[in-house]
Automatic annotation (TrEMBL):
<comment type="similarity">
    <text>Belongs to the peptidase M48 family. BepA subfamily.</text>
</comment>
<protein>
    <recommendedName>
        <fullName>Putative beta-barrel assembly-enhancing protease</fullName>
        <ecNumber>3.4.-.-</ecNumber>
    </recommendedName>
</protein>
<dbReference type="InterPro" id="IPR051156">
    <property type="entry name" value="Mito/Outer_Membr_Metalloprot"/>
</dbReference>
<dbReference type="InterPro" id="IPR001915">
    <property type="entry name" value="Peptidase_M48"/>
</dbReference>
<dbReference type="Pfam" id="PF01435">
    <property type="entry name" value="Peptidase_M48"/>
</dbReference>
<dbReference type="InterPro" id="IPR030873">
    <property type="entry name" value="Protease_BepA"/>
</dbReference>
<dbReference type="GO" id="GO:0051603">
    <property type="term" value="P:proteolysis involved in protein catabolic process"/>
</dbReference>
<feature type="active site">
    <location>
        <position position="131"/>
    </location>
</feature>
<dbReference type="GO" id="GO:0008270">
    <property type="term" value="F:zinc ion binding"/>
</dbReference>
<dbReference type="Pfam" id="PF14559">
    <property type="entry name" value="TPR_19"/>
</dbReference>
<comment type="function">
    <text>Functions as both a chaperone and a metalloprotease. Maintains the integrity of the outer membrane by promoting either the assembly or the elimination of outer membrane proteins, depending on their folding state.</text>
</comment>
<dbReference type="GO" id="GO:0016020">
    <property type="term" value="C:membrane"/>
</dbReference>
<keyword id="KW-0378">Hydrolase</keyword>
<feature type="signal peptide">
    <location>
        <begin position="1"/>
        <end position="23"/>
    </location>
</feature>
<feature type="domain" description="Peptidase M48">
    <location>
        <begin position="67"/>
        <end position="253"/>
    </location>
</feature>
<keyword id="KW-0645">Protease</keyword>
<dbReference type="GO" id="GO:0042597">
    <property type="term" value="C:periplasmic space"/>
</dbReference>
Length: 481
């Protein structure tokens, strides 16, 4: 199953590079002026469809702490990008492979393996800046338009193959292989132009956002050294070739900026520790040993991140008192750090100290009223403590702020179940299923909701409208395949 997940998760980036290979060399090297046929509206439609299919077929993480960290980092970089014409959506895939990819509609996926192998936040940020540039420069759309000029049938086949690859990797890659056979070696040069453009503009974004310009070169050099003699390089090197000239170019670009010290970010190292314990191939004992060794040898970027990793490992080993003692010490040093608050909430919930958890989280909510971490944790605590009705308003707010987040719908489904509201339980579950491209299942859930809504005309009308919308969405999804 894991191999399927890997193929599914990286397929879009393969497609982006394959699509680029079709482009004609007479297209402009910069900007998006050439994109006329493949509109932004089309990009948004395809991006939404692909994201839903990815949720259904790949291990997308629903971890509020990591999601909020990645979104804040990504949006910090986007704020310094030019030519931003779509919203951006950053998400994590549980996969130890080193990779990141971008596709239609501002979607940027990051493998957890990237955190495991990047030494600093600047290194991670350099990869994100590169992928953001692929989106702002509309590399995939530009390539598709170039191909459409020569063959409308081929572009339709390519777009269908993208979705097919996500849904069924083996069949999809076979379809792409057939399409790719039409490309000539001279057209592959446009892929290199895209990569150079993404490297150059990505560096500008990186520096303007306040990160170390050497982040890109350092990460490239580490990858080149680590996989120089391997027969199976990581997916990132397959989709982002790394000749020596690319590392040299990155070094030369970085040297053009003033030399200044950029300290690493503690939250990046906390995120890395969280992934190492909860979302990597480490077993619980190995994870504990890793952080105990770091603490013993002082081999850490931040002592706090090593202590945090140890606390998480102790929690997983059910050594709750030891874990809580460490977390309490960390909270005394940094009372509002959401990594610590999240784990403290888990510890309080484990011993059913719900009132203490509510006091902690309500205080944080006053400071960070829109925080995904605070609101998701607080809503979950209210549900677990027997007050599910109090969870609904904050879950609705989470959904309003991020309509692509499946987690609030899942918690809401549980909340309505405990409230005994069958109609809204089924309705919430339908929304969660639709976000994973299961429109037929979602319609079934809405039909159940309809049966439990007798006499509630407004609710019935809402359900009927949603059924029509999901039927249309299902037809549109089938048409893309």
């Amino acid at each position: 199953m894991s191999k399927t997940f890997i193929a599914s998760a990286v397929s879009v980036l393969f497609v982006a590079n394959i699509a680029s290979s079709f482009a004609n060399s007479d297209l402009p090297d910069l900007g998006t002026a050439a994109v006329n046929t493949f509109s932004l509206e089309k990009e948004m439609v395809y991006g939404d469809a692909y994201m839903r299919v990815i949720r259904s077929s790949a291990p997308v993480l629903n971890d509020p702490v990591l999601n909020q960290y990645l979104s804040e980092l990504g949006n910090k970089l986007v704020a310094h990008a030019t030519g931003v014409k779509t919203p951006f959506y950053f998400f994590l895939l549980r996969n130890d492979e080193i990779n990141a990819f971008a596709f239609f509609g501002g979607h940027v996926g990051v493998h957890t393996g990237l955190f495991l192998n990047a030494d600093s936040e600047s290194e991670l940020a350099s990869v994100l800046a590169h992928e953001i540039t692929h989106v702002t420069q509309r590399h995939l759309a530009r390539s598709l338009e170039a191909q459409e000029k020569s063959s409308t049938a081929t572009i339709a086949g390519l777009l269908g193959a993208i979705l097919l690859t996500i849904a069924a990797p083996q069949a999809g890659m076979a379809a792409l292989a057939t399409t790719q056979a039409l490309a000539t070696q001279s057209k592959i040069n446009y892929t290199r132009l895209h990569e150079k453009e993404a490297d150059r503009i990505g560096m500008q974004i990186l520096v303007e956002a306040g990160f170390d310009p050497n982040g890109a070169a350092d990460f490239f050099a580490e990858l080149a050294t680590r996989y120089r003699f391997t027969t199976t390089p990581p997916q990132m090197l397959l989709t982002h070739p790394l000749p020596e000239s690319r590392i040299t170019d990155a070094r030369n670009r970085a040297a053009q900026y003033p030399n200044r010290y950029i300290p690493d970010n503690l939250n990046y190292q906390l995120a890395k520790s969280r992934i190492q314990v909860r979302f990597s191939s480490f077993n619980d004992e190995a994870a504990l040993s890793l952080f105990e060794t770091q603490l013993k040898k002082h081999s850490y970027a931040f002592k706090e991140s090593a202590l945090y990793g140890k606390a998480l490992a102790l929690f997983r080993l059910k050594k709750y008192e030891e874990s809580e003692a460490i977390i309490d010490t960390l909270i005394k040093q940094d009372a509002n750090n959401l990594f610590y608050i999240d784990t403290k909430t888990d510890l309080l919930a484990q011993r059913k100290a719900f009132d203490d958890a509510i006091v902690l989280l309500e205080a944080q909510r006053k400071l960070k009223p829109t925080s995904q971490v605070v609101n998701a944790n607080l809503a979950n605590i209210y549900v677990e403590s027997g007050s599910p009705k109090k969870a609904i308003p904050m879950l609705e707010e989470l959904i309003f702020l991020d309509k692509q987040n499946i987690l609030p719908y899942q918690i809401m489904t549980d909340a309505y179940r405990k409230m005994g509201n069958k109609a809204l339980e089924y309705y919430s579950n339908a929304e969660a299923m639709a976000l994973a491209a299961d429109y037929k299942g979602a319609i079934d859930q809405l039909n159940y909701a309809y049966r439990h809504s007798e006499g509630q005309q407004l609710q019935i009308a809402r359900i009927e409208a949603r059924i029509r919308q999901f039927r249309e969405a299902d037809r549109n999804l089938e048409a893309l395949k």
